[in-house]
Amino acid sequence: MSNLPKVAWIGLGIMGSPMAENLVKAGYPVTGYTLEADKLERLARNGGSAAGSIAEAVADADVIITMVPASPQVEAIAYGPEGILAHARRGALLIDMSSITPQTSIDLAHAAADRGIRVLDAPVSGGEAGAIEAVLSIMVGGDQADFDAARPLLEALGKTVVRCGPHGSGQTVKAANQLIVAVNIQACAEAVVFLEKSGVDLAAALDVLNGGLAGSTVLARKKDNFLSRDFRPGFRIDLHHKDMGIVTDAARAVGAALPVGGVVAQLVASLRAQGDGGLDHSALLRGVERLSGHTTGN
């Protein structure tokens, strides 16, 4: 029997499944719940347990982790008679690792405190590859004592684990992260089209660029996507569109100008409107190609 905390994991998508499996590998007893039966079967095959409902998953859990797409989904699984707050035991720690609005995280923390449940917001960066390799960057908001208690578990999921301030701070930092990533991908996409239309060896050019000041984690992770036009989703345009809405709304609320970010948010929205919302966010390249009258045959 493990002496580690019992974990309930709600949401087993592209990111949630490998993350939950990494906790199992680290020795944590993990019970999962999601709406997709095949994801529950996958967790069970990899040493976890499957629950038939949120109530069943969280009833005996010391730690409850949620990883769902957006604020409405967090609210749907947290509140109401079938939700987490109605069935989690007093003293449990709820760690929401979804990317949602800072205010949603603050409201959840207040509602949970009324029921004796502690909360951290702990969104992540690193994409599917980072989730699989357990090298995510995890930005956390909440009380220091709760962060200290959660840290060993979070370190089984990521390489950089940092408390950024009180409730909602993790989500604020994640919004900034998504701004930087989107602008970076857009810049890389523009460079790719410029290089190809100039007749340069693209693979060689991206290699040398990534070795200099223009290099970045985004370019290293997405280089092959650009070269092969492989836009199978690691992080979907639909989700980045949601995140750009979060950062632009939050920036407006505090009076921060996002001149470049606002343009990139519209480029993400236009790509989604053209039917590419289900593709990886590296598909911003497709938008630049359309604007440039550039086709690759893919």
Question: Which descriptors would you attach to this protein?
Answer:
298 residues, alpha/beta, six-stranded parallel sheet, three-stranded mixed sheet, 9 strands
- Overall mean pLDDT: 96
The largest pleated sheet is described as: 6 strands, parallel
- Strand-pairing-aware structural class: alpha/beta
Quick one: overall form?
Answer: globular
**Strand order in the largest sheet:** 3-2-1-4-5-6
SSE arrangement, N to C: EHEHEHEHHEHEEHEHEHHHHHH
How many distinct beta strands? 9
Strand fraction equals 5-15%
Total helices: the number is: 14
What does this structure look like?
A six-stranded parallel sheet has the order 3-2-1-4-5-6, with helices on both faces. A three-stranded mixed sheet has the order 7-8-9. Helix 9 crosses helix 11 (217-228), helix 9 crosses helix 13 and helix 9 packs parallel to helix 14 (284-292). 54% of the residues lie in helices and 13% in strands. Helix 1 links the parallel strand 1 and strand 2. It has 298 residues and is α/β, with parallel strands linked by helices.
